[in-house]
Amino acid sequence: MSGKLWEPIRIGRMELKNRVVMPPMVTRYAADDGFVTERTKDYYEARARGGAGLIIVEATYVHRQGWAFANQLGISDDKFIPKLSELTDTVHRHGAKIAVQLHHGGRQAKEALSGLQPVAPSPLPMAGGEMPREMTVEEIAETVAYFAEAAIRAQKAGFDGVELHAAHGYLIDQFLSPTSNKRDDEYGGGLHRRARFLLEIIAAVKEAVGEDYPVWCRMDGKEYGVEGITLEDARQTARLAQDAGLAAIHVSSWGPTTPVNRTTPTFVPAILEELAEGIKKAVSIPVIAVGRITSEDGERMLKEGKADLIAIGKAMLADAEWSNKVASGKTEDITPCIICNGCRDDLRNPAVVGIRCSANAALGREKESEIVPAARPKKVLVVGGGPAGMEAARVAALRGHQVTLWEKESRLGGQLVQAAIPPHKDRIAPLYKYLETQLQKLGVEIQPGKEATATAVAEFNPDAVVVGTGVKPFVPDISGLDKAQAVQAGDVLEGKVEVGQKVAIIGGELVGCETAEFLADQGKQVTVMRRGAEMATNVGPGNRDFFLSRLLDKGVTLLREVRYDGVSPEGVIITTKDGEKRTIEADTVVLAAGFVSDTALYKAIKDKVSEVYCVGDCVEPRTIRDAISEGFRTGQKI
Fold first, then answer.
1. 328 contacts 321 by C-beta, under 8 angstroms
2. Domain 481-593, what architecture?
3. Helix/strand/coil (H, E, C) string of 485-536?
4. Which of 249, 450, 521, 568 is the most buried (most CB within 10 A)?
5. CA–CA separation, 397 vs 391, rounded Å?
6. How do residues 502-555 score in pLDDT, each as one tens digit?
7. Where are the domains of the chain?
8. Of residues 44, 61, 170, 613, which has the active-site annotation?
9. pTM of the predicted model, to two decimals?
């Protein structure tokens, strides 16, 4: 273990064993009423055991009126202290320090949770949000006191410090930003007045907990996509906060186009580096940097003096052991975050309680996901080298089984290989490379180019079989399609077929739209059609608007609610939703009409082998997360 990442550092009087920070990320693992649960403790314990120097517990509401998420942690009453104490004890056992982020949602709070109308500096709603009530000067003073009282509770619960959430469009940030603060009293107008609320909170908190207790804030180094906070504004605010007694500044960003919530054409690490550097030049207290920072870039930023601590967020969701693996030089063993933003989408998804990870089936299920040795090692055959099959093979091998994997293609990865080809998708490639590396290290016998038949399986004579044979493309019933020599989207992405200049794509879900962007980047004239009313409905809300806007910016034509009347040598004949019959001219027709599960092998062997499992798209076409989760659970069962 060498390098600046592993050097100790102080934030105020708090000494950290290294410079790796787990930043606050809302998990929704708390109880309905805001209490710490066993799930909360298991999640944080895994990251403390994983080697992080400082763990900052997610946004925790200081008053009911600021309650912004279902199953959000609370610190608004003394009743929360005992369970929070259990959490700090749990983390301290592993040598990590633990702080809590004090939070008030302001106009992002939800009346459905609190029973109270949200409040804000000005009566301006978020896009699609509730109308907040403008805070009176008396209410501002009361809210300052809420933060101070919450800090006292944090201190009593054994937290080593507190972070004030002054970023991401929540209440303190709403005062700081000229886009949300239109007040004309002492709390609005120029930068010093907009910063007054934050400075009063700092003063009240410092007075409540004493000079020796570390207090810092997270703030936006810049607001993107609005006429809001600039880096120079942030530098001035950071200096004011330092002068008010803060022990550190944690630099993030916010806004409709903030880079941390968007993909890039190819993966870009340390995406907010310039913001951390800008704040670092303005203050003398430690600066915490965040934003897709790799271990290499974190080390470089520390050496170049651009930051003092490195926050590793979503990468630590994907792998709780990130710190230990980097420290021991085992970076190839880190489960990679694929930046799908699924965890962010889960924050406001009423269908689930708690965030999930596409790459890590153990997230939020740490206790039940412990991999224990099998009572009796078995001869296990996995058919299919996609994500579900590879994950099942990995976990089964970890449990001590003798695992063989057959894959009919010449390479592993399944649909992940095609998924990583379109623009903005190279972030997926590390996942299948990681899985293949793990299988090799675990001694799984991999046989590429091996077609599985019921006879071959019987001859192999396994104790258990995992069938992950994936999907076959669905071919719609459109007259003339059979004569048109239409090509499959997957073959287009892998360069297996020639594509003309004018392209018509049948199917407007994820694959069709991604193939359209891939071809548009090659200068092709692309039209995407679908019967449904919306395009790319399976893309999560965190990525969808940005994705569709890119297609339009690149000149892709999107046609919804069409009826397919036939395919001719000229192109695809359709009837539009307005009843107009027209031909979409095309040199090449690309099919992206969906998939059907390939269950032939499963049906052929399910009564002939005592233990048979079906995993991934072979069950039904779904997501990477479903495939990894099913593979993991199956590997545990065998």
1. no
2. 3-Layer(bba) Sandwich (3.50)
3. CCEEHHHHHCCCCCCCCEEEEECCCHHHHHHHHHHHCCCCEEEEECCCCCCC
4. 249
5. 10
6. 999 999 999 999 999 999 999 999 999 999 999 999 999 999 999 999 999 999
7. 4-346, 379-473+596-637, 481-593
8. 170
9. 0.97
